[in-house]
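call fold(seq) -> tokens
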Amino acid sequence: MWCTSSASRASVARAVRFFSGAALLAALLLGAPAPSRAQEATPPASSDADSLGVWDVSLSAKFSGSQAAYSNWTEGGISTLALTAGIGGKANRVTRHFEQTYDLRLSFGVLQQGDRALRKTDDLIKLGAALQYEGEGFFRLFNPTVAATARSQFAAGFNYDEAPPELAPDGAPAPDPPVKVSDFMNPGVFEQTLGLTYDPRPWFTQRVGLASKQTVVTIERLRPVYGLDPGSPARVEAGLSSMTEFDRRVFENVRYQSTLGLFYAVSGTDEWPDATFENIVAMQVNDWLGVDFELTTLYDRDISDELQVKEILSVGVTFVFL
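ret:
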């Protein structure tokens, strides 16, 4: 993993401590149970009864891009072409005692700048599934839940500045950039959780429980970059997990989605849990034009002592299929 100063590690610790505190504070301030959930079960209204067992599916795609070309332009400039495509979807089904939820998020972006080779700017495969049981009494407020998530990418990624030190073991000279540092299933991160879900509001969900996390790297040369031994294609960890989700329309045409995932390996020696904090602000200008801002921070000390940050601002055309 990359080494940093004690001041950098302290800043990371403060950041992760803030994320953990934010999840707890949100649960306390926003998670007061709604009166309807505190009462005994009542027969559903006719409209609710009609929706039982029916899949509620949403699916949309977004395409964004920018282009600039120069020829004999005295003031200077560089020709560029950037394209990004993304698909997001969700399927939900509620029966008398069970609720199923499936999430999908795919994105891919490329950049062509001057005479440079085509470069990747965004790449994400993210899948999620959850099954909740709603019973009576305690299990009406805190629903037993089985959940799983998977995260990877479509194509190879390169470091164009420098080679990670893990790719030059035993003092060997580091390869010259660009250096391949990722690919499909390199890494692939999978997590399964068995726990309880507390969702007092339609826009707020808190899930905690026992969990297992697997980090898979199929290319042997890349395994040290992600904290794996060269001879081991996967790292399996058992521990505790927390998932806090906030999804609400804050204005008529502005939607804010935030997800804070924490995983603490009980068999590990890390002082702080792995943390993934995703924030998306989606602004719909009209029926087809949208502006999205995404900020994602990731902390996993098995990979790096530093806080990893990704920020994307895009303007594009949105197509709603379902």
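The longest strand covers residues 234-251.
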